[in-house]
Amino acid sequence: MDAKVLIESFAEFARSKNVDRPTMIRILEDVFRAMIRKKFESDENFDVTINADQGDLEIFRYREIVDDNSEDIWDFDKISLSEAQKIEPDFEIGEEVYEKIELEDFGRRAVQMARQTLIQRIKDLEKDILYNKYEEQVGEIVSAEVYQILSREVLLIDQEGNELILPKGEQIPKDRFRKGDSVKAIVHRVDMSNGTPKIILSRTSPVFLERLFENEVPEVYDGLITIVKIVREPGERAKVAVESYDDRIDPVGACVGMKGSRIHAVVRELQNENIDVINYTENLDLYVSRALSPAKVSSLTIDHDTKRISVFLKPDQVSLAIGKGGYNIKLASRLVGFEIDVFRELNEHEEEDVLLSEFSDEIDAWILDELKKTGLDTAKSVLSLSAEDLTRRTELEEETILEIFRILKQEFEQ
Question: Per UniProt, which keywords does this protein have (predicted)?
């Protein structure tokens, strides 16, 4: 293979991979200089000129002529007078000899290795370009097409044919994909595995929800509204705390949009995830009350030492505060950074009621915890429900519930 064929084939391959001309020339020169070092020990006294467009390669070796008896005669950049005069009889000591080195001088094996090295260098460069491209896009939304659905992940391809990975744990539980579907997600991270970049996407990250708001709400994109914090139970519920430094802008109203037009687009993308948008405030009492929306808080006490908040609500608000599956209270706790305990507020006619904690000697702790999860914290609040209601709202068996009723009723009969 001559230099022209080698360079032209490499240049065509490099262009197909969108490698720019300066990078292409640099790779060619690096590979040829590596060949020179392998054959001549050093490339310091070599000029390498490449014209990739024409497929031209010129390699010149220059050495200083020294006396045949000189101590420097063995230096890589020196040549004896007698050797120099074999090239040109008129040469004299002190002059420089320029010799053109042909690619064939390196041997067929070396040229074949150079060709393989050039292709590998482009492939490595392509991986670096892909890694850097997506590393810069971490936290940004991308769209890609589903091309293979596996048990642990969904494989997608971008517009340039690069493979992206959406792991099962980064999918919304209600997500159902088919081959050819267009999927939106954020670039979660970029890993290197055996020299190959792995682009990991996510649809469960709070950042994904934040980017969706930026796309749908111009005031968020322009920075007029700030998203302070987002907490999510993907596919179920999310709470978004927002604030605006412009008194003329209602941050909640702007995010929700006219008749919910803006937030509906976000909800649809998240498989009907229920999204609560609340006004952020540094007033912790007010912030907690807003975080527990749609429940209305009657009163609360804050213990900064233990990072716990006791919230008191009217009986009909307790289940709203806890929410389906306990998501509302879990997300509210994460949003404000305190553990929230919900208590049923007693009115003047309920003073003789007894807290469930008083029955810890007769009822197992895990059973009491199961009742408290549903907002039941007093004996009468439990007795106000039927056995069927309790079976439906808890994971307790009917036999256990009937025994609870017996113990609680016995307390009031006494």
Answer: Cytoplasm, RNA-binding, Transcription, Transcription antitermination, Transcription regulation, Transcription termination
Across the strands, what pairs with 344?
Answer: 313
Distance in angstroms (rounded) separating the CA atoms of residues 267 and 272 = 5
Superfamily of domain 207-280: K homology (KH) domain (3.30.300.20)
pLDDT digits (tens, 9 = 90+) for 337-386: 999 988 877 655 555 677 787 788 888 888 888 888 777 878 888 888 88
Output 381 or 149, whichever has higher pLDDT: 149
- Whole-angstrom distance between the N-terminal and C-terminal Cα of the chain? 105
Classify residue 184 as left (phi > 0), alpha (psi -120 to 50) or beta. beta
Q: At what angle do helices 261-269 and 206-216 cross, to 10 degrees?
A: 140
Q: Which helix (H) or strand (E) holds 18?
A: none
| C-alpha to C-alpha distance for 186 and 245, rounded to whole angstroms | 28
Cα 100 from Cα 13, distance rounded (Å): 28
16 or 220, which is more confident: 220
